[in-house]
Amino acid sequence: MKATCVLLLSFSLSFVANAQQYGFNITDTTDEIGIASDTLEAAVRKRGYVSGVKGGSLLDKKTGFRDRGHGLDIVDWIMEPGSDEAYRDKLPSDLAYYFGNLYHGQRPKRSIEGPQICTKARELQPRVVEGRDFVAIEMKWNYTLAAPGRNTGSEWRQWLVFPRGKRYFISSDRITSRNDSPAMFLRIDMPGHIKHKRGDTFSEIYLSYRGHISNSEFFLDFPPDAKFNYRRDRDGVPQRFIRAYRARDPQTGKGGPWLAGMTLNPSDPSEAWCHQRGYVCMIHEFGERPIKAGESFSAAFIVGWFDSIEEMHAVYDRFKGHSDLEVAANGWRLIPSKP
User: Fold this and answer.
1) If you average pLDDT over residues 7-15, what whole number do you get?
2) CA torsion sign, 71 to 77 to 80 to 84?
3) Residue 188 Cα to chain centre, angstroms
4) Are 18 and 32 in contact (CB under 8 A)?
5) How far apart are CA 61 and CA 42, in angstroms?
6) Which fold has domain 15-336?
7) Is 328 helix (H, G, I), strand (E, B) or coil?
């Protein structure tokens, strides 16, 4: 036992030393993994509210601003269009989907598998991969609930890659399905919701498919399909798919950088909400295409801090056309979207 403890301690010290050598400081506790570089800090939860980057932890060291939401690239259910009303009384409570209300709008949708990962998975086992100029974290989970006639066990896998010297991270979410569906999609938060009191934490929102929106539009609650809603089947595919908010110091009113979430293949999103429900809700759904059991679908993102819209566009255009991410110790690469 003593030899095993010494070996584990030696490995841990070696890992930290290597990370520091390459410009990162990594901390690993029972509840979360912390990542710090010269440009940003972030935390990834192992327990509690899991998936993505922990809310309030993405620090832009250039400006001192942090994200103002519940987390970034946070993951929910596997879903499809259509109502569950005919069998809702047979569903576990976390799968029932109520529409025709202020929270979900009018469009019928239903959950295929759950529960909601962020609130109900409870505990994940992140795997850290350290490269010469990046640190990456992989998370996986298999869904444990399913609608009647559907299988459980579809796999969600997420990569978060933090490149050295950047104020953003690259991520991907991938579902390997155990079910057939004519239009399966995954629901996530992208970049993430915005906590605020009458717009005190942000001055405006930028949607590449809509333009600039003043914070005053979010003083009162409204449903997701009332305004600022995007649907691929109705609106077409934009040149870029970027959703961002300009941070604002709630104490001084001082303006800060933009926090953006970019979907690198603009045809991957099927619907995106930007509405007010006590906070600005930035639900993002991708996929909604036919799939067979055993097949996969995914999307890739860049999430982080930018000084201007022009800077966002330049980064987006550099990485555009990718829908997944692969990582190994010798490097990471974005995977091109399928035609």
Assistant:
1) 36
2) negative
3) 6
4) no
5) 11
6) Beta-galactosidase; Chain A, domain 5 (2.70.98)
7) strand
- Quick one: the chain helix, strand, coil %, rounded to 5? 15, 45, 40
Residues in the chain: 339
Report the distance separating Cα 8 and Cα 160, nearest Å.
25
* Look-up of token digits 């989970």: 141
The pLDDT tens digits of the residues spanning 121-162 come to: 999 999 999 999 999 999 999 999 999 999 999 999 999 999
Instruction: Find the helix or strand (DSSP H, E) in which 263 lies.
Output: strand 255-263
Place of tokens 């099927």: 270
Q: How far apart are CA 21 and CA 237, in angstroms?
A: 43
Please name the amino acid found at residue 303: V
Q: CB under 8 Å to 338, separation ≥6 — which residues?
A: 323
Cis before 81? omega within 30: no
Pure H helices in 22-87: none
Evaluate if pTM is beyond 0.85: yes
What values do phi and psi take at 244, rounded to 5? -150, 155
The answer to whether 123 and 141 are in contact (CB under 8 A) is: no
Helices (H), the chain: 2-21, 117-120, 232-235, 309-319
- The tokens for 123 are 């505990």
Q: Are 121 and 141 in contact (CB under 8 A)?
A: yes
| 3-class SS string, 305-325 | EECCHHHHHHHHHHHCCEEEE
| Residue 331 zone, left/alpha/beta (φ > 0; ψ -120 to 50; rest) | left
Distance of CA 105 to the CA centre of its chain: 21
Please, which pLDDT band fits residue 256 given cuts at 50, 70 and 90?
Answer: very high
Report d(CA 97, CA 109) in Å as an integer.
7
Give the single-character DSSP code of 95.
T
